[in-house]
Amino acid sequence: MAEFTSSSITIEAAAADVMGVIADFARYPDWTGEVKEAEVLQTDAQGRAEQVRLVMDAGAIKDDQTLAYTWSGANEVSWTLVKSQMLRSLDGSYILKPVSDSVTEVTYQLTVDVKIPMLGMIKRKAEKVIIDRALAGLKKRVESGA
Length: 146
What we know:
By secondary structure, the chain is α+β, with helices and mostly antiparallel strands. It has three helices and seven strands.
């Protein structure tokens, strides 16, 4: 199993509200920073995204990628890489843990393998930056109610 990078944050909102923002891919460019475009290519019977195309600009890594999403109940979503220009693999997940009716702990796990050689320490630092930015953006987006 590949090493993954993980971080958690507490958000002042119900888990359903947090997942609502996570599942709203069209709005990702508004709050994620790295995502410049998001397009849902395929949905499941419940209308949740199964495949999403994302155009990313994370500084050193600019990419056009397609991810496959798996929804596990109401509080977990994971994804894997379908295709990418820059990445060999990308596996991630958001796991929501209700602390109370109005507080949710969100854990984001990420493993990225780039096609170009990169030291493990640098790769994990990049994963940590991506995770921390995403969690901060998610928290701000959910708590602002926008």
